[in-house]
Amino acid sequence: MVSTTPLFRSLLADDMQTVDRVIRARLHSDVVLIRQVAEYIISAGGKRLRPVLTLLAGKALDYRGEHLHELAAMIEFIHTATLLHDDVVDESELRRGRETANALFGNAASVLVGDFLYTRAFQMMVTTRNMAILEVMAEATNIIAEGEVLQLLNIGNTDVTEAQYLQVIQYKTAKLFEAASRVGALIAAASPEQEKALADYGMHLGTAFQIIDDVLDYSGDAETIGKSLGDDLAEGKPTLPLIYTMRHGSPEAATTVRDAIENARGDRFHEVLAAVQSCGALDYAKSEAVRAAEQAVAAIAGLPDSPSKQALVELARLSVERNS
Questions:
Q1: CA–CA dist 145, 209 (Å, integer)
Q2: Which of 144, 123, 158, 139 lies closest to 237 in space, CA to CA?
């Protein structure tokens, strides 16, 4: 029987267990509420894709030192902090099929524990004594914050262009994918060319990943995705399927989408869904995701062949074939 387990999962099984142990150890705080909230959101699981990228990037360059697992856990802490803050900003009640931390513990606790995770992540970076890694992560966290603000400014704005949408997702989501790949390269003493290759891979992969997330908002099911379908619509976020529909759909379809975005009309989800489906917006968005995934694969073509490189190639393909 052929295994259906992705290569990166089987290749990194032991490493991910080590990363989880590091996460548990580094979550420790004498403040009980910090432990409760952080443990709650970390234990929700998730794909752990960003630490996977750090591990694969380091291993693709044959790194065998002690810092890789610490850096992978650090990346997951940064990601978790952004989730905690995101859910407060978006007033979300569900994530990965469970109540969000803010719904359970309140907004104040979620924001403050997010801050704890950010600062703990920087403590973890310092242990590497690698200034280049600190520089990369300082820039990345700053750009992620800019992306959050850009997205906030775009709420309810039906004039957002595809280029502006891409800027938001590249700042808000893909930048951490890029940083995750880059720190794995840096700790492995990558050449400038190798570092750029892995950074570009991460940026393109993160772009593909987020576009598919936005497609799934109109083509998945809530149980599989772990959130309510149409959440972005209810928040008035102009995502790629909606932008395409407003530009290329029928006048009626465009008007439906515009009204839903401008007035955050989550109750018009089924009308918007019909409008999006009527003009090929989902096919277009998926083709853009596939194009980004192909750019990711092309970026690492020059790396030495290895199981880790093969896993990175597979990961790019899987990112656009998923249903959650």
A1: 19
A2: 158
- Encoded tokens for 7: 């290569």
pLDDT digits (tens, 9 = 90+) for 86-126: 888 888 887 767 888 888 888 999 999 999 999 999 999 99
The span from the CA of 79 to the CA of 173, in Å, is 9
| Positions in the chain whose pLDDT score sits under 50 | 1-2, 222, 225-226
The pLDDT assigned to 76 comes to 95
pLDDT for position 147: 96
Helix (H, G, I), strand (E, B) or coil at 238: coil
Instruction: Give the whole-angstrom CA distance, residue 95 versus residue 87.
Output: 8
Give 214's contacts (C-beta < 8 A, 6+ positions apart): 232, 239, 240, 241, 285
Distance in Å from the first CA to the final CA of the chain: 25
Token code pair at residue 112: 């403050």
Q: Which residue has the tokens 């940026």?
A: 203
Q: Which residues pair with 95 in a beta bridge?
A: 98
Phi, psi of 99 (to 5 degrees): -60, 140
230 Cβ neighbours under 8 A, 6+ residues apart: 217, 218, 266, 269, 272, 273
- Residue 228: name the closest of 242, 240, 217, 214 by CA: 217
* pTM as predicted: 0.93
Cβ proximity of 248 and 287 under 8 Å: no
pLDDT, position 82 = 93
Q: Is 16 helix (H, G, I), strand (E, B) or coil?
A: helix
**pLDDT of res. 320:** 95
Helices 192-216 and 175-187 pack at an angle, to 10 degrees, of 150
CB 117 within 8 A of CB 81: yes
* Amino acid 172: pLDDT: 96
